[in-house]
Amino acid sequence: MASITLEKVNKIYASGFEAVHEFDLHVADGEFVVLVGPSGCGKTTILRMIAGLEEVSGGSIYIGDRIVNGIAPKDRDVAMVFQNYALYPHMTVAGNIAFALKLRKVSKSEISEKVRKVGEILGLSQYLNQRPRQLSGGQRQRVAMGRAIVREPAVFLMDEPLSNLDASLRAQMRVEVLRIQRHLQVGTLYVTHDQVEAMTMGDRVVVLKDGHVQQCDTPKNLYSHPTNLFVAAFVGSPAMNLFKAGISSNGDVLDMGSQSIRLTEELYIMHPTLRQYASKSVVVGVRPEHLLIGEDRADRFTISSVIGLVEVLGSDTLVHFSAGAERMYIEGVANEAATDLADNEFNVKNEGIARLDPKVSVRIGEKVTLSAELDSIYFFDPITGNVIN
Amino acid sequence: MLGKSEYSLPPSIKKRNSRRGDLPKKVVGSYWKADLVGLMPTMALYVFLVLLPIVIAGLLSLYSWNGVGSLRFSGFANWDAFFHDPIAAHSLEVTIVLALVSWAIQTPISMALGFFIAGKQRYRTVYAALYLLPLLLSTVGIGLVWQALLDPNFGGLAWLAQNAGLSFLQQNWLGSNSLALWTIIVLIAWQFIPFHTLLYQMGRRQVPNVLYEAASIDGATKWKQFVHITLPQLRYTIVVSSTLMLVGSLTYFDMIYVLTDGGPGDTTRVLSLDMYQAAFVANTFGYASVLAVVLGVIGVVVALLLVRFTGFSSLSSQREGIA
Q1: Interface TM-score (ipTM) > 0.85
Q2: Tens-place pLDDT, residues B46-101
Q3: Which of A257, A279, A285, B41 is the most buried (most CB within 10 A)?
Q4: B62 to each of B71, B77, B78, B86, how far by Cα in Å?
Q5: Which residue of A has its CA nearest to B319?
Q6: Cα radius of gyration (chain B)
Q7: A74 to B322: CB separation less than 8 angstroms, yes or no
Q8: Average pLDDT over residues A348-373
Q9: B residues 264-283 near A, CB within 8 Å?
Q10: What is the C-alpha to C-alpha distance for residues A154 and A63, in angstroms, rounded to an integer?
């Protein structure tokens, strides 16, 4: 078991495309780190460079204390779970799991003992003699896991291992992968594009975009202290509401489209740098789950809005609303607000979403005041994208 | 084969797959007629060009016939002659040696070239086009050209031997007892390797790259990847190629006929040549038919054995289950 360290790792393809830019990361032994980002952000490339399947253009990769840049995949002592599992179709489940051990010339009795044990851990005991094609998607995924864990490698690399499973199985396997990793205490780098997986599984999460690290932090900090617009929009579901706004020259009023919101002294205490943004534009962020209906009080941040669409989920109700403001679009992040549903009878162009208590009853076209605690309001610089503290 | 696999399906699947399951009997009947009409041309060709000649050859082997006169029933006299004919036994031996050695030479070379073409090297397509040239040439043409090249007095190799200091090339390639069969085996390989290269290239391209990646991470060297990934994944390609090679060289005739006509002596006299001479030189069509039946039976047995031992008959997918 070992740590993984990447120092200023670059990947530039022959075409000149820079897939990964100066990437630094340390995964401690036993730690579970998730790489997350939209497709094409370089996360899989990083994983493949660590595995040795892809050459490094610059920088160093360490597994433990050993620099592995020029070392062949087979000598790196890593195990990888592929997105499409890459099971050997001509071998049985036991053969798949045992393959790496056979290559290492482990004794037959030891192999069968280990395979039996792994089969038990993963609930594959009764399938050991079947071929991959006879298994369901979830079982195949387990075989892929089994192939990785039987070797007791220095590190685990997982490339979107759950993305081929259906939603309920994915939720179940999420817990299971985590359980196995906690049990084995092997340093793990896990790649996903699913921010829910990232948030629920990672000790730490690295958010990547276009080969650049946006933020590397604990899930909790990513959620509550995003460093920039991209992280703010990427983490959380539905995504954070982001509105374009401007601050008046005296700094008292926030002009957000058709509405003016008073900026209290309290907000300035929370975001001292905001004072420098007088008569400049900013982006205002508020998470859907922090919005409440009503509570129109001076100590809260209030938005007058018109409801354009109501989605009843049972556990909560998603309300799409218009605040007469312009929504900020972030490249690479899906925009969940039903912006284009402007053809409803009230002609409400939705710019934001509020996640409300299901007991609250609202109607389309209703005018409501939405409000949030002051400390759940974020400000971002629209040019740099960085958070304003 | 098809019927067998269909019967083994559970009834529920059979019903679901059958587009006729819910149709009334009358309609099903008319479909059958349509199918039959559609099959007719192919069936007719098969019966007249494949089945009938086999039956005729089988019957003819029981007659004595010189090709023009009347048929005379001779019972198993031709078969008896075959089992006591030292030339036929020798021809059979030469045929078997030719088939096995051809297979042993052509398979690894075709595989290596096929993998090379399937790779990512530069100028790959240029090489590929060059390899495949022999495929475009007629066998007789190839035979005549090589005959000229191998001529011990005026041939290209002799010229090289005399002018380029490559004296080991000065051999009587087609006229020496010890060399003729091997020369022919090499020329057959030269002619057929391109085709099998194509097969292996196609097969290798079908193997998903991710299997090699997984194996390399699992600790497999290039050789182990070849043994544990490439060979099993290419199982059906190997069966198809080997069947074509073995059965093809059993009946190989034209180039040998052009180059040596079985000589020197009987060293390159394969069974098909023996058959040709029995029929069209000695005018003993009954005996030639015996040889034809023997060749046919050997070919079918070889093909069946290959299919049997490699499990080809089950036609299961080699890829399913990767993901």
Answers
A1: no
A2: 999 888 988 888 888 888 887 787 878 887 878 888 888 888 888 888 999 999 99
A3: A285
A4: 10, 7, 7, 20
A5: A89
A6: 25
A7: no
A8: 87
A9: none
A10: 8
